[in-house]
Amino acid sequence: MAGEREAQGAILAGGLLTLSRSLYMAANHKKFLIFFDFDETIINENSDNSVVRAAPGQKLPAWLRDTYREGHYNEYMGRVLSYMGDQGVREEGLRTIIEKIPVSPGVPSIFSLLRAHHDLFEVVLISDSNMYVIETWLQAAGLRQLFRCILTNPASFDARGYLVLKPYHTHACQRCPANMCKQKIVSEYLRQRQEERAGRPFDKLFYVGDGANDFCPSVIFGPADTVFPRHDYPMHKLIKEMQQSQPGSFKATVVPWQSGEVIATYLKTFLDR
Ligand SMILES: [Mg+2]
Ligand SMILES: [Zn+2]
């Protein structure tokens, strides 16, 4: 009897030891946050142009294209989707096109690496495309599970079967389109997650993008962070302009990429240090 009780005590103590060790490890566990843009970053096209392939003749009439106003792309895209609905385009037609959009070169290597280290990385998608396009594409590619969340314009089918687009939020940023400022999204996300993580900030931030709207959030990244602008795309050009006009003001490390392999290799080297 005594031996049995001792054995039970040892098992209990062992259990507590394991528990406290895993709590200790959890408390000291490094956590990195990586943001991805979608259009021309994850996928190798602008999805707003891709969906037009579902329209009759695979293009839009000139009168519709002429309604675009600078800084109001989201509203324009709403009119495009409404026109496509009028032309009889429904979910099936859109889905067929979306699922075939090609991934950007080398980007699958980044996802393989992130999947292998899912305990170290929190992965977030921020895009000015829309929820329907992104979820449809990610699900077809088997990638939906990789992302903790998708922050993008809401889109859903109405009773007629038309895809209806809404703006993400409102903001006061001068350089971003009316419906979305990614800097506002990133700072709100960081604040919210730090609160949820008992005040702990992430150990390092990464940002993969290509557009002018990816430049806006990248200026708030610090010297410990790394941004990956697609080589010679607007985000990269704007960073270079800022580095030249105000030396030292752009804080993050900049690693341009033409293939996602560059990013995968960088992350792997960073983890191996
Ligand atoms: Mg983009
Ligand atoms: Zn902005």
Give an overview of the whole structure.
This protein is an alpha/beta fold and 273 residues long. The chain has one domain: Rossmann fold (3-Layer(aba) Sandwich). 47% of the residues lie in helices and 14% in strands. The chain has helices at residues 2-28, 47-51, 62-65, 73-86, 91-99, 107-116, 131-141, 182-196, 212-218, 234-245, 260-272; strands spanning 32-36, 121-130, 149-153, 155-157, 163-165, 204-209, 226-229, 253-254. The strands form 2 sheets. The protein has a 6-stranded parallel β-sheet with strand order 3-2-1-6-7-8. A two-stranded antiparallel ribbon has the order 4-5. Helix 10 links the parallel strand 7 (226-229) and strand 8. Helix 8 (182-196) packs across helix 9. The chain is globular, with a radius of gyration of 23 Å.
Q: Evaluate the radius of gyration.
A: 23 Å
* Percent of sequence in beta strands: 5-15%
CATH class: Alpha Beta
Runs in which pLDDT lies below 50 for 5 or more consecutive residues are none
- The string of secondary-structure elements, in order, is HEHHHHHEHEEEHEHEHEH
Just name the CATH architecture: 3-Layer(aba) Sandwich
In total, how many beta strands? 8
- Small ligands present: magnesium ion, zinc ion
Portion of residues in helices?
Answer: 40-55%
Q: Which oligomerization state do the chains in this entry correspond to?
A: single chain
Structural class: alpha/beta
Number of helices: 11
Q: Write the CATH fold name.
A: Rossmann fold
Instruction: Please indicate the count of domains.
Output: 1
CATH homologous superfamily designation? HAD superfamily/HAD-like
Instruction: Identify the overall geometry.
Output: globular
| Average predicted local confidence, pLDDT | 93
Strand order of the largest sheet: 3-2-1-6-7-8
Largest sheet: 6 strands, parallel
How many angstroms does the end-to-end distance come to?
Answer: 52 Å
